[in-house]
Amino acid sequence: MEKENQNLFHIEETTIFEVQKALDSGQITSWELTKQYIERIKTFDSTLCSIREINPDALAIAAELDKKRQEVDQIGPLYGIPVIIKDNIDTKDAMATTAGSIALANNFASEDAFIVKKLREAGAIIIGKANLSEFANFITELNMPNGYSSLGGQVMNPYGPGVWDVGGSSSGTGASIAANFAVVGIGTETSGSILSPASNNSLVGIKPTLGLISRTGIIPLAHSQDTAGPMTRTVQDAAILLGIMAGVDERDEVTLTSIGQPRDYTAFLKADGLKGKRIGVDRSFLPREEEEVALFNKGLEELTQQGAILIDMTIHREKFDSIVLYHEFKYGIDNYLRKCAEEVPVHSLKEVIEFNKNHLDVVKYGQTILEYCETLNGDLKDPTYKEHRDTDIRLSALEGIDAAIEKYELDGLVFAKYVGCELPAKAGYPSITVPAGYTPKGKPMGLTFTGIAYSEPSLIEMAYSYEQATKHRVPPALA
């Protein structure tokens, strides 16, 4: 076993390239690096509850990667780098995949999710699985707080545990990466579940175009909106991770739409990326708190200082319902559970509901959404489902984002926080959140850039330019 030397390298706020440089020079090994992160998790996470499970094999994997490092012809940026993933992503290892549900506490996957395979091929170390809002925040309407799961407990925001909302449902990934428990993290989003915790934890979060990243091996909520995406402390790290995660998966047909798209997003890290960009601002999409509105207005000023052309405009907006999500969840979760191992006590949504009724001490916010979804037939040929899906696309894309981009000749849209996230979510379009500062009381907030399908290159240019000009992120002071 390698000798531990915790004085070799400071892990706080470090980036992929900084870590890789230290690994290449021998300043630190992946084993030592992983050990430092595990010790940091053990020291601070009892307050934050962000990590559902540490990978018991992480140190062994790191040691093996160290041994092979000199034998690898070409070291990629993620080789030997600790990564945290959300606990609704399958891993074929000693960690269960639970979606935060006690009913799935012993759900050990038979194979890695497609994106996990790509991470492992790149040499990444899956150091642990992050806690989350149970079933991706799709369990109850009875005021369950963001970040709560019956199995993992309540995730706290490191900038103000018990004070500020941690965001959902990728809350554990958000809190853990903000608290420097790994180099980078991965969340998933159906509507706001990457953008919300990224904004609330002063992180960069990318919700990619539906189809850029495979959904195979991820516990589903709604397949017409579900996607995984990077959650990092810098735009550069998010761009690196996005390129590694992206790829065509024959088992997920929607990824065929990404053929021809870039696989290296670091080419779009341009410090002048805002210059000349026409960005739409709809001021009806504003936060409720005056302090956050003030931060947003300051952010708009900073955009113009970097050469952006802000266009006041109005985007078609109607209130969306959840009919599509209900139908797709019933269809998707039954299909996922049906394939679980015999040791898992539930193999259908109906069985999850019955299991929860015997554990009301931890399933304490109810399961009204689960119970409603169980009344549906899970048939995606249902005319009600198809009608609402067509309406969602028309309102969010054709008459929403598409129409606004075309009418005002825009390169993208900008929103405060994750306000307006339902538009790109329903459309399957990309968004990127970047830290925009803090309220006088210390509450983090981000700016979110949104565009049409596969406009990630332009969004990354804008986000990187803004980040480099402002450098707003400040790490939380952990107790």
From TrEMBL:
Instruction: Output the superkingdom of the source species.
Output: Bacteria
User: What residue intervals traverse the membrane?
Assistant: none
* Pfam (any one): Amidase
State which Enzyme Commission number(s) the record gives.
Answer: 3.5.1.4
**Coiled-coil regions listed:** none
Q: Which UniProt keywords apply?
A: Hydrolase
Group of enzyme by EC:
hydrolase
Xref: Gene3D superfamilies: Amidase signature (AS) domain
GO molecular function, one example? amidase activity
Q: Where is the Amidase domain?
A: 32-459
| Entries under PANTHER family matching the protein | AMIDASE, OS04G0183300 PROTEIN
Q: What is this protein called?
A: Amidase
Q: Which organism is it from?
A: Niallia circulans
